[in-house]
Amino acid sequence: MPTVYITAPPDAAGEIASQLVEERLAACVNRVRCRSTYRWEGEVHDEDGEILLAKTADEACDELIARVAELHPYDVPCVERFDVAATTDPFAEWLGSAVDSGAD
């Protein structure tokens, strides 16, 4: 099962996280405050941000990534997929049911 790593500005992170869960593309999204230093269009930026860790199912991952691209305010958002090699069975079962549109 994948976890999708996303960075976002603080004023957009909550909405992105909520939409992904509401639309059942992610079972949950953890939000962690961070500070990012990066180069963009020839300038170095240093800004507050949030890391979003979206837990999802294999079958929903591509749609989740596409939805982040639609929701995100950046032209080139950081969106990276990490495949989780192991987790507990109860968590995996919950995640699968939370992303599947047939269960709550």
From TrEMBL:
GO MF annotation: an example: copper ion binding
One of the Pfam families matching this protein, by short name: CutA1
Keywords annotated in UniProt: Cytoplasm
Domain of life: Archaea
InterPro entries xrefs: Ion_tolerance_CutA, N-reg_PII-like_a/b, N-reg_PII/ATP_PRibTrfase_C
GO biological process: response to metal ion
Homology family: Belongs to the CutA family.
Protein name: Divalent cation tolerance protein
The species this protein was found in: Haloarchaeobius iranensis
